[in-house]
Amino acid sequence: MGEPLISVIVPVYRTESYLRRCVDSILAQIHHNLELILVDDGSPDGCPAICDAFAASDPRVHVLHQENRGLSAARNAGLDVARGDYVAFADSDDWVEPDYLSYLLHLLRTEDVPIAACNHYVTVNGRDIAKYPVSHELLRLSKKAAYDGLLYHRPPDVSAWGKLYAHSLFDRVRYPEGRIFEDTWIIADLLDIADSLVYGAEAKYHYIYREDTLSKSADSRRVWDFLDAVDHLSDVIMRSYPELSPGCARRRVHAALSIRRLLVHADVSKAGDIERCESVIRAGAKEVLRDKRAPLRDKAGILLSLAGRRLFDGAWGFYGKIRRRY
What pLDDT score does 133 carry? Predict the structure, then answer.
């Protein structure tokens, strides 16, 4: 059998300083039979010219230029033209190991499933930190087991990247345009169709942590889009597995706590957002506090929230200072 064609889709927007490294790492893949689809989402910097230069030098590179419509629309535009039997994604400020695609393809073929996922590194200030323990372990996960992992922040994670998909999965589902946390929104739908997933604990993807990432902003639309995405994830899971209700409650409270931490020391205009967070935390507090699998950090956050805003803000601010120091 010859190598199957893999379509790698990279949305591009304002990543001029990172784009060349990303593209170079994809074109250097051991799995050579690939097409790289660069979707210039109306980037106002030098990215469009960089994309065109790569297309002129390597016939495997194809470029789509479009008006700025967001990450979901860019991924969907790439899917519309992708010709591969399999599809992978990368963000244009990240980079991948030379065997990123071959490793994922090996996992997918070994277990005969429609989705393969790998471990990844989070790069902070030039230092790589593995998201999960790195090993040669391979796990085949049923749909229910994969859902359970998502609810408790175990493998697989929600990201579009770090995975290889059978192209046919996207015949029935696309990324939700207008959403910011589109990865969290769509992952349960993809798993619902796929029915199973294989996870490999070797880290083959490098996610670059940037302080200016949009998802770290306390903008109201962005933070509540996050909770909407978690609610959709939970709704899809509950349709098939109502017994996973404790995990869904934990994931929703975790989302509210994450938003609440972004609002520490927020000005008075954010009072409504803080109250909304606190109402979600109060609603799920009892179930999460009783959940033996819920992390202690979540439980501590719940108790601090219930104790009052001043205590929560002070404790989180102190913890943040310690974390930055180390």
Answer: 97
Structure confidence by residue, pLDDT tens digits, 35-58:
999 999 999 999 999 999 999 999
Cβ contacts of residue 227 below 8 Å, gap of 6+? 252, 255, 256, 259, 280
What the block records as the tokens of 113 is: 């499933």
Q: How many CA atoms lie within 13 A of 307 on its CB side?
A: 13
Q: Which residues contact 208 (CB under 8 A, 6 or more apart)?
A: 18, 93, 94, 95, 123
What domains, with CATH codes, occur in the chain? 6-208 (3.90.550.10), 217-325 (no CATH)
Tokens 């946390």 correspond to: 181
User: Could you give the CA distance from residue 168 to residue 162 in angstroms, rounded to a whole number?
Assistant: 18
pTM surpassing 0.85? Answer: yes
Q: If you ran DSSP here, which 8-state letter would residue 129 be given?
A: E
